[in-house]
Write a structure and sequence with these properties.
Layout (H helix, E strand, L loop, with lengths): L1 E8 L3 H8 L5 H4 L3 E6 L11 E6 L4 E10 L4 E8 L5 E12 L4 E11 L5 H25 L1
Antiparallel strand pairs: 1-7, 2-3, 3-4, 4-5, 5-6, 6-7
Length: 144
């Protein structure tokens, strides 16, 4: 299954990317993540860094940084463990400059497997509550 969300941010792409590339910076801009820390003695921008995220309802996600490119302004992470019934989860966040207006087009997508009876719920949870809502929070943080 694949979900996709996008948004335009009224800020230069370099500014947006500086926020996005901080793998444990979600506590600054997310309305859901209450704590974020790297748990395996790696730098937050080093491939293989494992982050521990706690969300407002007490859930915990363990995620690994699997790709990061400053040139492409993109990162990918997987979910190793978490409270949602998904497997083979890979999320991609990408930042694109809109050169005509010095603003940013940003995407957040994810691919994952889930059981047939969870498909629509996970489409909503991941697509709407994680990706789309996360982009809205990021936009609000950067534009204020």
């Amino acid at each position: 299954m694949k979900v996709f969300a996008s948004i335009v941010v009224e800020a230069p792409a370099e500014k947006v990317w500086a926020v996005v590339r901080d793998f444990i910076g979600l506590t600054k801009w997310s309305n859901v993540v209450s704590t974020a820390r790297i748990t395996n003695d790696m730098a937050a921008d080093q491939l293989g860094a494992v982050r521990h995220l706690e969300i407002g309802d007490g859930g915990v996600f363990i995620e690994t940084l699997v790709a990061l490119s400053d040139e492409d302004m993109s990162l990918q992470y997987d979910i190793v463990d978490g409270p949602i019934p998904v497997s083979n989860y890979i999320a991609t966040m990408r930042v694109y400059p809109i050169t005509a207006s010095n603003t940013t087009y940003m995407t957040w997508s994810a691919t994952f497997d889930t059981t047939d009876d969870q498909r629509e719920l996970m489409r909503s949870v991941v697509g709407d509550q994680i990706c789309a809502a996360g982009l809205q929070s990021l936009k609000a943080y950067i534009e204020t």
